[in-house]
Amino acid sequence: MGLVTTIRCDGHGCSAEKRVANHWWVVSMQMSNDGVPVLMVTPLKDKDSLDPIQSSLYLCGEECVLKTVSKFMTPHGDPLRMTEMG
Length: 86
Ligand SMILES: [Zn+2]
Hints:
The chain is an alpha+beta fold and 86 residues long. It has a domain at 25-84. Helix content is 27%, strand content 21%. The protein has helices at residues 46-49, 62-73, 79-85, and strands spanning 25-31, 37-43, 56-59. A 3-stranded antiparallel sheet has the order 2-1-3, with helices on one face. β1 (25-31) and β2 form a beta hairpin. Zinc ion binds at residues 9, 11, 14, 16, 59-60, 64. Residues 9, 11, 14, 16, 59-60, 64 line the site of zinc ion.
C-alpha cells in the first residue's frame, strides 16, 4: 500500500506490472575482483521498489529470470545491456 511507482518487468518481451502479491526478483550483474561477471538473483522486497537499483533488472518471475540467466550464459552475454536494446 502507498506504492506509487509502477514497476514493469524487464524481461525480454515481457512488460508485466508488479502487483503486491507477485514474487518478483532483482537480477544484477557485478564484477568480481578477478574481473569475472557475477550474476546475482535476489528476491524483490517492497522497500526496494521505492529505491530502484541502478543496473539491475526487475523480473516478474521464474520464467523471466531463467531467460535472463540464459542470456548471461551465452558468450559475451550481457543481460542488462541486451534488455536495454530490446
Ligand atoms: Zn516478466
